[in-house]
Amino acid sequence: MCSQAYNKRLLVFIGSNYQENKARNNIKKDVWMIDFSTLVDIAVTLAVKRLKSINAKAEMEFAVEVEILGRVQHKNLLGLKGFYAGGEERLIVYDYMPNHSLLTHLHGQLAADCHLDWSRRISIAIGSAEGLAYLHHEVTPHIIHRDIKASNVLLDSNFEAKVADFGFAKLIPDGVTHMTTRVKGTLGYLAPEYAMWGKVSESCDVYSFGILLLEILSGKKPLEKLPGGIKRDIVQWATPFVQKDTYDHIADPRLKGRFDISQLKVVVNIAMACTDSNPENRPSMLEVVEWLKSGVGYRKKEMHMVKGQADETEDEDDFGDDDTDYYEMFDMKKHSSRIPPTQSRKTK
Question: Per the database record, which ranges form the Protein kinase domain (predicted)?
């Protein structure tokens, strides 16, 4: 936005004319393009998040997200344009992301088109990691996202990753290594100590990011339903391939073998380190960024076909966003610096 005055005038216009704008522009998902030339001298595309109902819980999440977004500024975090709180309307206005979310490309309406080639997937992984590292280590107080997942990684016109949705985020004061809180998040991404006992720390985001990495590489959902109603998570699915050194079976079949096997091994092993069942053994996001960049980020390699790569995908059930509520206490120690995982790692 051009100025503070521009912000204020535009937001009041959006908020006070929300329903009219929505109907006129055939808006179905709170994302639209409006010509504001009568108000300012440019047209702008915005994404608008609207509270469906006003209650204490929704108001709290609205306030948290606005506060967090007002504190952060990073190329891999979704930028806040402004917010509107007037009458019964609560709106948060963001930059519009024309390539939608990572979820849309992995499991949604654009999945069959396979716009995410190998280089884009690696770039998205690194960008998401850098955004998280910024939250954990550069912002004061530190911020735990608490809901890292594919639908909360948005993609701009260049497929650059933007971590979004800070409604569940927690501010962590200096010197505090953990908190105990009501659990919020999505099944399949939750760290065990968080899901069971509400033990939240930066390490919980690291675990969720490890799940996200495996999802980016494989195109599989975090949870799948097996015959008999048994659910298997993506770590359980990937572990046998790591143990047998058959990493090529982890790669998304939609890539049709066009990936770098050595890079795949590096990223899979980073994901396995992030999803270690013991939170003290997980790396920090700074370490993850370093490992990703040194392992794959700055090496230009020729893509090659991996023989025997399957060309079909498995049928999977769609698991929605399930919130859970648990309580407990936790004693977390900060992990010490470690060397990056190597390709020789076979077990967790």
Answer: 6-292
Look at residue 331 and tell me if it is in a domain.
no
Are residue 225 and residue 90 in the same domain, yes or no? no
pLDDT confidence bin for 306, thresholds 50/70/90: low
106 and 91 in a single domain? The answer is no
CB atoms within 10 A of CB 60: 11
Task: List the catalytic residues.
Answer: 147
β-bridge mates for residue 77, sequence order = 163
Q: 139: alpha, beta or left, given left = phi > 0 and alpha = psi -120 to 50? A: beta
Is the Cβ–Cβ distance between 36 and 43 less than 8 Å? yes
Boundaries of domain holding 146: 102-297
What pLDDT is stored for residue 177 in this prediction?
63
> Which residues are CB-neighbours of 21 under 8 A, at least 6 positions away?
14, 27, 32, 34
CB within 8 A of 262, min separation 6: which ones? 301, 343
CB contact at 8 A, 59 and 92: no
Name which of 144, 198, 235, 132 is nearest 330 in CA terms.
198
In DSSP notation, 145-184 reads -S--SGGGEEE-TT--EEE---TT-EEE-TT---EE----
> Is residue 343 a part of any domain in this protein?
no
Residues with Cβ within 8 Å of residue 130, at least 6 apart in sequence: 74, 75, 76, 289
pLDDT at 17 over 50: yes
**pTM of the shown model:** 0.79
Give the dihedral of Cα atoms 10, 11, 15, 18; nearest 10 deg.
Answer: 50
Residues with Cβ < 8 Å from 94, sequence gap 6 or more?
46, 47, 48, 49, 78, 79, 80, 81, 164
- Cβ(199)–Cβ(332) under 8 Å? yes
Same domain, yes or no, for 106 and 89?
Answer: no
Q: pLDDT digit string (tens) for 221-241?
A: 999 999 988 999 999 999 999
Tokens of 250: 């982890």
pLDDT category, 322, cuts 50, 70, 90?
A: very low
Bridge-partner residues for 47, per DSSP? 31, 94
